[in-house]
Amino acid sequence: MVMVLAAACVPASAGWFSKGQPVPDWAVQAAKTPTPTPAVVKDAAAVVLYDENVETIDANGRATERHREVRRILKPQGRHSSCDVSYDVDNKVNYFRAWTITADEKNTFEAQPTDFIEEGDTDVPIMLSTRKTRYARPPAIDVGATLVCESEELMAPYDQETIWLVQRNVPVVFQALEVDLSAGHSHSEAWHRFDPVKPAEIAPNHWRWELKDVPALNLRDVPSSPEWFALAGRMSVQWGDAAIAEKDQEWRALGEWVTKLEQDRPTPSPEITAKVNELIAGAPDFYTKLSRITEDIQKNIRYFIVSRGIGGLQANHASDIYRNRYGDCKDKATLVISMLHVAGIRAFYVPVDHRRGVVDPEDPSLLGDHMITAIEIPADVQDARLQAVVKGKDGKRYLIFDPTDERTPVGNLPSNEQGGYGLLAAGGSSQVMALPVLAPAANGTEQKGQFTLAADGTLAGTVDTSHVGPKGSDMRYMLKYTDEKERREYLEKKIARDLPGVSLTSFEFVQTPALDKPLEFHFKLTASQYAHTAGPLLLVRPRVVGSYAMPFDDKPRQVPIDLDATGRWKDSFDIALPDGYVVDETPDPVDVDVDFASYHSSITAKGNTLHYERVYEVKQVEVPADKAAAFRKLQSAILMDEKGTAVLKRAAN
Question: What's the CA gap between 582 and 651, in Å, rounded?
């Protein structure tokens, strides 16, 4: 079961398990399920034979969740299987047990205290987190063995949604979800990338969904695929205030809950007010006010997480964030909202997920792992620097901004968030909204190279690059977290993909303090044996550095194609030929235009110079599966162009 919001339980205790418990009858019966045919399990390391979750909701809307699972190990890789339960300070684990049934079904083993381990929350830069996960791994987990898991938790009182992940990375033979509601409660359900299944009412207000033979979602050999969790089938069930049949109203109820949760957090302190007035003094326009405030937060408020129970959802007070100079994503969003309020600018919380496609407008839910902001743009403000703009249902314009990203300027937006969805938490005006996809000009790189080719094939020269948008942000992050030695190693390794044996003679980064200005990178290189001899001829690749080709194959495509980011990349390279050589033959120009991207290149010779130029422009972040043929056409053209070779011959005397 995937839990919405923050997973929660109480600290570990010996009372979680009882020694001498036999394998329960439900597990014994489930373990008799035959292993599906090889065509069904394919190369899966395990198969789930039985999975059942039961949510029992009391009169106050608080849930008790029971989880049962039976999993058979099919391959050696499946030996790492375990049972687990995540917990925090706001709920209680009633019991947690695990068993193994050996492959010959003659022996069973119950997990003992030494078979349980506990881990803290270390996925992101966390200063303090009360969330932990406890794992149980009983003995004799081997190929053919069956693992049995059972747990029961009293969930946190604010958890009034459950998310049923119906698709896994292994096949599932049988699974069920029950929601047993007390009198007076209702529920709503929504499905993501899975055909809806109607529940059976097995008792008054007690609902049960059952599924059989759900195939695994395996993206291991699928190139350029979207995020796994964005594609996996799931269902969310609401039983609190958001249990409303109409989706827009359900989203609004979720937004109202977030608004109420955070309502007093952005209240500005006298220190915040004074700082904002100092920052915006003399600011000539709306954008200048925005950039001064947001850059101050990006540069001076460190990203750290302190999470305790509902504190994993509720931000700290703006005054504490400003005084301590650190906070997580919702804290940084809170400080942005607070400081902009002092400047007379309205801003709102926007819960999102850092993985594009996870938040689904057809599946109202608080599922997500990140918080950003929506800044209301006054009707009279028209500024081309405000690029990440969306329009709400009421006609108002909002600038989407992620204050956690320390290197992406206000007005732009990290590539992974473009094309997704977020929840505008604005009280009664709350709504789900599509996050913008920026124009190609908002992101990309321009490279200019001047090279000299020697008769022995050695290439030497300089490259000047300019990076804007998220690509510039990536470079700024690299600079922040590396020293000179690490940068050289990183750059030489990256350039060596195009130029084996390359040596960087020198390199320099030019980084302006303003985040909305390009970042420049200048370097000099030498590469021996760049050109190759073929009898009296010399073969040289005009495309010296940089590759835009993405992985692709000829298999039938079932899932969308993730292009990562929109952008515009331009290369212009001049190669001075060795004395006594002229260009005999050049590859043909390439011109490919599809609705989601374009690629144009040309190679010309003038005097003793070989000139290569290309422009690659990506207009969408995701391409439907039915356009796979156009994607292959584009990538094939890019790959052939990048491998293209010009032929040089000795000039006639």
Answer: 6
Distance of alpha carbon 608 from alpha carbon 176, whole angstroms: 73
First to last CA, the chain: 79
Q: How do residues 147-199 score in pLDDT, each as one tens digit?
A: 999 999 999 999 999 999 999 999 999 999 999 999 989 999 999 999 999 99
Return the number of other C-beta atoms located less than 10 Å from residue 263's C-beta. Answer: 10
Listed residue (292, 275, 433, 255) closest to 342, CA to CA: 275
Of 146, 159, 151, the residue nearest 134 (C-alpha)? 151
Whole-model pTM? 0.92
CA distances from 509 to 206, 465, 476, 480, 512 (A): 63, 10, 10, 12, 10
φ, ψ (nearest 5 deg) of residue 331: -70, -45
Q: Answer whether 553's CB lies under 8 Å from 223's CB.
A: yes
Cα–Cα distance for residue pair 149/71, rounded to 1 Å: 9
Angle ∠(189,193,198) on CA atoms, nearest 5:
40
Give φ, ψ of 117 to 5 degrees. -130, 160
Q: Is 624 helix (H, G, I), strand (E, B) or coil?
A: coil
Q: Report the 10 Å Cβ neighbour count for 101.
A: 25
Contact in structure between 470 and 409 (CB atoms under 8 Å): no
Residue 643 CA, distance from chain mean position: 32
